[in-house]
Amino acid sequence: MASGKFRDAVFANTFHGLGQLREAGQFCDLHVTVRDQDFYCHRVVLASVSQFFKSRLASTPEEGFTAHVQVDHEDVSPQFFSSLLDFVYKGKDFVTQNTAKDILKMSAYFQMDFLTNHCEEFILRNIRPKVCLGVWQFAQKYKLHRLASKAYKMAVDSIDRVSHDELLALPKSMLLILLSLQRKLSMDNTCKLITDWVAADQDKRAVHLTEFLPFISFPHLSSSYLSELMISQSNEMRNVFFGIRGRDSNSQQRILAQQSVKVNLPEIQSRAVLLGGVTRTGHSLQRILAFGLQDTILTHRDLEPIPEATGPHFASCTWRNEVYLSGGTLMPKFFAVYKPRDNQWQVLPDLTGQGLEKHPMAAVNSCIYVLGGMEKRTTGEKRTSPQVSMYNVSTSTWSDVCQLSTGVREASAAVIGHRVYVFGGTDSREENTDLVQCVDTLTGRGYVAGRLPSATCGSRALSNGGIIYVVLTTGEVLQMWEDFDMAEQAEHLLATGRDIGTEDKSTVSFKQVAQVSARYQFGACLHDGEIILCGGHTDTGDPLSSVERINTTGHIISRRTTLTSGATNFDLHVLNVPQIRLTKRLLGSSEVIVDFPNLKGWRCRADALEPCLAVGYKCDTK
């Protein structure tokens, strides 16, 4: 007899014997009461398959004593516990379409990983579009990441076929994920889904309406639907739609230029916009370059330069298709906004205090948040700050919000809904941290949400409105998984003045979706389901001239040469830029002709010359 078959025969005979002993009530030393029903079994059997029972029984006498365990948890019923004993003692598979979820809940409570995995595999094989939303919510609650991933991807692919009522019952965070990924709904239906979702629980959800507006391009709504909205919606919504209904071309262009939804129309096009940077020789650049991400050769157009030489280590973020820029080594108090519609900068009220550098920024609901960073004190010394400040776009005023649990500099930040997440950074002890900190902008409170897989600084965090990706300098590309149920519980505790607690209650986790080459002080943006990385330098200081495009599934699509080779410390965003701004080049007093491969006679500004020469392009000044 083969050893494998012999082993299986021994196992089968052993458990058959144990089953007979349980049925005869012999040597049973464990008494389990599920609600009001009693079961007798063997401690060694349940402890061998369940961490729950192993932990509970560890402190009981091992001989001459029948242990008793009371189970009153809502996820465990007498019926399913009886079936569980048959499964353990007899190998009887009781997982069906009707029982899989209930058994999985019970196995998760008892910490029976092999049964949990068996149930998850069964549901994965049998998931269908009509039940995918329910499966997603179920998987999210029980932290079944594989199942949740398949369920939400199926929901994205079939969003035009799933139950509208089920969509309206989704938590905000789940709807944000769907809208950030879906490509099937028309703009009318997208807007209708958002307004219907808010109306389904107006009192609680109205505060979140503006978080969904970046998914709507208002000039692309049909006239009939706009008329319907103007009649049916609240005054707040009417203000949002003002100027669109009449289809006035000037109003339409003005509003279109402020839309976050990326477009490619004859009059306005989506472009990557590169701000500032530092050349190989340390020269700080004020330029803004716009280039098409799908171009075979990355030709750029110059936009209005930054009005002040901020130096490196400034921060920027976008809100409603405008770029807000703050701080920097040379101008730590500087704060301004770039408006693509007019191709102009507007200088705004200075940052509070003595200003900042090496800080991240983020935008939520017409408020710009500045988080941590390196601040200059009145004594002239610099320190790592924990302060979170907010600029209100509507009132043009600054205010303090809260303090981070740990002050950090050279961290990155990104937004999901009303939450601003801050990733890693260097703390006041000059040590890199793996902390993920969160600012709840609704209550103005901060807390530790979890930890990255490793300590890091200088990362880039990118959000599509529903999912955050973090690119580490070591080349790992991470997708953040938000446990929004636990996040809401934590925020409720904080709002009522209670402590979250010291035990591990992470509201976020991560999985690696790609590995690229290491790069430092690079630029990154998210566009059309792709993470785009460019510029920066290697760990030995060599400049990088490649553009890496990573599909969010983890596939590295291509590498191309960018005209910004040799530059570091720049920021990269995707904006809708009027075509008129892309056909005019702003040339300084010193104009150069640069001979690029396949692009003879390309004209660029003088301050773009140095990074071009850094990679050996031939240049003749004229």
TrEMBL record:
Coiled coil: none annotated. It comes from Pomacea canaliculata (Golden apple snail). This is BTB domain-containing protein. Keywords: Kelch repeat, Repeat. It comes from the Eukaryota. The lineage of its organism: Eukaryota, Metazoa, Spiralia, Lophotrochozoa, Mollusca. Transmembrane segments: none annotated. It holds the Pfam family Kelch_1. Residues 28-97 form the BTB domain. SUPFAM superfamilies: Galactose oxidase, central domain, Kelch motif, POZ domain. The keyword Repeat applies. Gene3D superfamilies: 1.25.40.420, Kelch-type beta propeller, Potassium Channel Kv1.1, Chain A.
